[in-house]
Write a structure and sequence with these properties.
The chain has 215 residues and is α+β, with helices and mostly antiparallel strands. It has six helices and seven strands. The protein has helices at 8-23, 34-43, 48-62, 70-80, 115-128, 182-198, and strands at 86-96, 102-112, 141-148, 151-158, 170-177, 202-205, 211-214. A hairpin with a 2-residue loop joins β3 (141-148) and β4.
Length: 215
């Protein structure tokens, strides 16, 4: 910037130069945290390649990157991953084709392996982020089912949050292609329903590492 210059472009250049220098520091407040970057990626369904392109665009256009590193986001994603607690299997199913003839197709069934573990993990996350409310000695849990199109879903929700009816509060327990009648529920969701019936307490750790137990 020329000495004594007062144009808008000069001020923009000065501001960008200041931010570029600040952006190299870890405490740079304009950059999104790994948690915020992960939330952004999840909300708008960015792939790792999309995130890489977005970071490149910010760097090229602004001269600095407002997103956290892909490695930090990947590490956070690993911590949030719950796929290890699900069984995902392909099941052959007979369907009526458009021509009216029967054909066999593969369908997917997803079931939670350990319902208590899944609930404990979710409650622990809510506790650590100060989103668990109205809890003294008891947790209020709700098991609900939904039949939409060709699929039936069973989901759990924890009612001890400020907005329990949001879809973000739902935790998938079972998903299969078929009806929600007794016969198909027993064939596809019997194990998780039996786990639900046996459930009488939940054990989890507080943010201070103290084991807690709720009925």
């Amino acid at each position: 910037m020329k000495k004594g210059a007062t144009t808008r472009q000069d001020y923009n250049d000065l501001l960008l130069n200041i931010i570029k220098k600040t952006a190299s520091r870890d405490e740079f407040s304009v950059r999104l945290t790994p948690q915020e970057t992960f939330a952004l990626r999840s909300r708008i369904h960015l792939s790792d390649g999309d995130l890489k392109i977005m970071k490149s665009v910010f760097k090229k256009s602004l001269g600095f990157d407002v997103l956290s590193s892909r490695c930090s986001v990947a590490e956070l994603r690993k911590k949030c991953d719950t796929s290890d607690n699900y069984d995902i299997v392909l099941l052959p199913k007979e369907k009526i084709a458009e021509q009216g003839n029967k054909e066999k197709v593969d369908t997917v069934r997803v079931t939670m392996k350990d319902v208590e573990k899944g609930i404990s993990r979710r409650v622990e996350d809510l506790e650590k982020s100060n989103r668990l409310v109205g809890v003294e000695d008891q947790l209020t849990l709700c098991l609900s089912g939904d039949k939409g199109a060709d699929e039936t879903k069973l989901c759990l929700s924890i009612e001890n949050v400020s907005n329990p009816n949001t879809p973000d509060n739902l935790m998938l327990v079972c998903l299969y292609e078929g009806h929600d009648n007794e016969e198909e529920l027993q064939a596809n969701a019997q194990d998780v329903l039996e786990q639900w019936n046996r459930l009488d307490k939940i054990t989890y750790y507080s943010k201070d590492g103290i084991p807690l137990q709720k009925k």
